[in-house]
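The following block was generated as part of the benchmark described in Methods. Ligand: fe (ii) ion.
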Amino acid sequence: MPHSASNRRADVLGVHSLDHFSLTVPDLAQAQKFYTSFGLDVRNARSGFDLHTTGHKHRWGTFREGPQKKLNHLSFGAFADDMPAFRERLERLGIALVSAPAGSDGAGLWFRDFDGALVEIRAAEKSSPDAKATTNNIVAPAGVAAMPLRDAAPFIRPRRMSHALVFTSDVAKAIDFYMGALGLGLSDTAGDGIAFLHGLHGSDHHLVAFAKSDATGFHHCSWDVESFNDVGQGAMQMADAGHIAGWGLGRHVLGSNYFHYVRDPWGSYCEYSHDIDYVPINSTWKSGAHAPENGFYMWGPMPPEDFAMNYESPSNSLTRDLVSSEPG
Ligand SMILES: [Fe+2]
């Protein structure tokens, strides 16, 4: 097994990236408009559309149409020559492989977590960053206007996906499962309500996070932009497109990123993120168990009351219908 690459740890078997997520949404055209307005590169695919970012060859998300918004699967990327070892590990852990879902390219290892959530490990290029993201927070010198006029505001295009946050019925079990089977590292927890996991071959503070609910579900995907101005400018871009509801501008504690979440038409979120913490290869990052009130956000407005609501849970089906009928 070659271990010379600088983006690879020699002593661990672990996935290196969140390769992509897959969602079902009730209205593909509405979803396309939402993500296009967000600044993503939406490309038609066989049975729906895929999400890309401008100037990056990776596919970060895939969408198809169905009766209601639903997380179909998370797919994690691994080094190709680690795939046999992952197969052995899953077998050793008693995790049964299942058939690839219809429409997938089928080459990965597919299985379900303890909640029944569908997961793939696939051989893929490392799409998580190999270093902390660069910033472009321009400070104008004296005598120069920092801002263009409003009608010359740039269209914000995120550089890459950073992470996804999904719901689980049991955060402690999710930590055990995703560390044990997939080889992710624990970055931080806040109470028993949320856990943030990173890739051991170098990744953002979290490439996936798990929040407590009574069912599985998709909470948000997060997209890296190059400046904190772009977080606010992105939120304005979405407001101009009619997507006003959300949460921000603020700064998280765990992960440290500047954030603005824009609510999608189905009650989950798309996050502009800047300057998230990075856990480098061979890091000495010490995971912390924090009190929830001490780890959520450093500053920002109050989050919406239903920010942590899992609209995919059968117990929230009534409120889900109300949310879907509201303007985006
Ligand atoms: Fe996030």
